[in-house]
Amino acid sequence: MIQDRQVKKLHRLLSSGKTLVESALRTGMSERTARKYRSMEQLPSETRAPRTYRTRHDPLESVWPSIEEQLVASPELQAKTLLEWLCREHPGVYDQSHLRTLQRRIKQWRGRSGPAKEVFFSQVHHAGDLSASDFSDMSGLDITIAGQHHAHMVYHFVLTYSNWEAITVCYSESFESLSEGLQNALHRLGGTPRRHRTDRLSAAVNNQCDRREFTVRYQALMQHYGVAIEKTQPRSPNENGDVESSHRGFKTAVDQALMLRGSREFPGLESYKEFLQSIVDSRNASRGKRVTEDLAALRSLPPSRLESIRTERVRVRSGSLIQVGRNMYSVHSRLIGEQVEARIHMDHIEVWYAQQCVDRFPRLRGREKHLVNYRHIIDWLVRKPGAFENYRYQDSLFPTTNFRMAYDALREHHGERGSAKEYLTILHLAARQSESQVDAVLREFLAGSERLSATRVQQIVQSDLSQPSSPTDVSIEPICLASFDSLLDDTESWYSSTHLDQALADGPIAQERSQALDCHAPEIDTQNDSLTHAKEGNNEDQGHERTTDGATTGTPLTGVSGALRVSGQASGTADAELRAVPTGVDEYGMPSSPDESHRELAAQESPSVGENSREFRSEASSDEGVAASP
User: Fold this and answer.
1) Per residue in 10-68, pLDDT tens?
2) Neighbour tally for 333: CB within 10 Å
3) Strand 130-137 and strand 195-198: pairing?
4) Which residues contact 83 (CB under 8 A, 6 or more apart)?
5) Which helix (H) or strand (E) holds 156?
6) Residue closest to 9 by CA, chosen among 47, 52, 61, 44
7) Closest residue by Cα to residue 43 from 81, 75, 80, 11
8) Are 165 and 281 within one domain?
9) Total structural domains within the chain
10) Same domain? 171 vs 263
11) Does residue 360 share a domain with residue 253?
């Protein structure tokens, strides 16, 4: 079959001046066929008539009307389901070999007679006109803070024209989170759009009744900023598609940044928030021109923010508990029967009594949960130890794992009632003294073999608190500089002629040592001559003493005379360089010899400027000795 591309290539070659024979060869067709398509003005695909006949019998012809009835009643039916139905209705006639034919027929029916599909209409966005927001769950990113998994969400705000976005970390889809996130975004943006759209959030939309479309608090918030509010239709996330699409892009960017960072662990919540904000700033920076147009079209902000809190007046129950948002929280027992004000923030709750904040605790997420602080009720619980065993919130009375294990250990020795009394005494001690100190004592008891008791724990805690540990004294002895002279003395003794001759005579490597000394004999002779001249210009007093004019006198080192070199002018400073120091003793009692390669290199070097081979000192630099001889 001749393809369209072959005919197109034929026409290009002919128009470029190629002959018919050459063009036919290059396109892979015969000369006769090339002559045929040269005179035709149609491509091969345009000359072929579509096939209207079947090459084999249609196996679904007799049952297609009943299949069509099923499709009209339920257009979502799949070909596999209908084939199973046919196999049951007509056993032995149909099998899996008819699946592809049935799928093709159903596809043709849906394209010709099937139901219409939903149409999504692209919208034109205008600068500064519409913003959208929604909550997005971030728990799937496996963020950990201080080693603990951090389950959280973000409130996501987007301007639909430029896709400028802002986020706020939160923990529930509450009105406090909505208010805090929205106000943070508007104040970071520096203006307000004309409209704002959300999905059917229960914090903003009345989903149970039709009398009020939005909640009173949400209406008051948006009226404060002068923004018209909108909501999407039920189960229509496409109507809020800008923020939904930004969810995916933002979470993908965070995941990629975490992989590039190499760790999903953060030392604290603030560092994690800074990390997220850096990603948002980077994404906003790439939206340049449209963001500028958005900012120019925004309206001004009101002079102040609204408080993103909700207040409830609640009465403290007899169990020293208050109920806030279908969750239970404990307060101090002294407030039982009193009415307090609970100020509900996005992530914490404050309890106010008589115009003073008396307690603050983290806000629980979800419903039917409790947060009980044992310090609030322990004073009366030690008086009623029998209430501990079946206390409804007993799990909150174990501050750490050690307390739980201690209670289990007490039950083995004292029974249920006796163990409750003992444990409550220990818990009371933790409330009055130090929870961390009691926890440390319990850990030692659990690790040891001593029997645990409240009296013994109290004695240890009291003794530890009454005798605080003194700070560690650090004493540093003064360094004696004379200790370094012993190193030189040891070197001198080893390199003295007596030890050297004896070692060379006794050792099996005497011949090798003799050859090494013969090789360096000229160097040693030159250095000895230099030392002789230097000694003639110095004082002849023995011992390491400093004269009144600042010179240093002393006995030159015999064994290391060739190991010191003084460089510099006679009147200037000089540097002493230790050429060779023994590094230890070998198996024959000889001092280990260091690498001798530097000696050969030093022998080849010529004296540098200002360096005189006669200016040698045994233990003092040139500026401490007498003047050099002319």
Assistant:
1) 999 999 999 999 999 999 999 999 999 998 888 988 888 888 888 888 999 999 999 99
2) 17
3) parallel
4) 94, 96, 98, 99, 102
5) strand 153-159
6) 44
7) 11
8) yes
9) 5
10) yes
11) no
Length of the chain counted residue by residue: 630
CB atoms within 10 A of CB 453: 16
Is pLDDT at 212 greater than 90 in this prediction? no
What is the average pLDDT value for the chain, to the nearest integer? Answer: 80
Domain residues for the domain of 79 are 64-113
Q: What is the pLDDT of residues 324-359, one digit of tens each?
A: 988 999 999 999 999 999 999 888 999 999 999 999
Residue with tokens 């190193």: 487
Residue at 262: amino acid letter: G
| CA distance linking residue 576 with residue 570, whole number of Å | 14
CA distance 231 to 124: 18
549, 517, 555: which is closest to 535 by C-alpha?
A: 555
Looking at the structure, tell me whether residues 288 and 379 fall in a common domain.
no
pTM as predicted:
0.57
**What percentage of the chain has pLDDT greater than the value 90?**
50
Task: Please give the Cα distance from 2 to 35 (Å, whole number).
Answer: 13
SS3 569: coil
CA distances from 248 to 150, 252, 275 (A): 20, 6, 18
> Are β-strands 552-553 and 348-353 bridged in parallel, bridged antiparallel, or unpaired?
unpaired
Lowest mean pLDDT among 75-84, 127-136, 483-492, 593-602: 593-602
454-466 vs 435-447: helix axis angle to the nearest 10? 120
Q: Per the domain annotation, does 242 fall within a domain?
A: yes
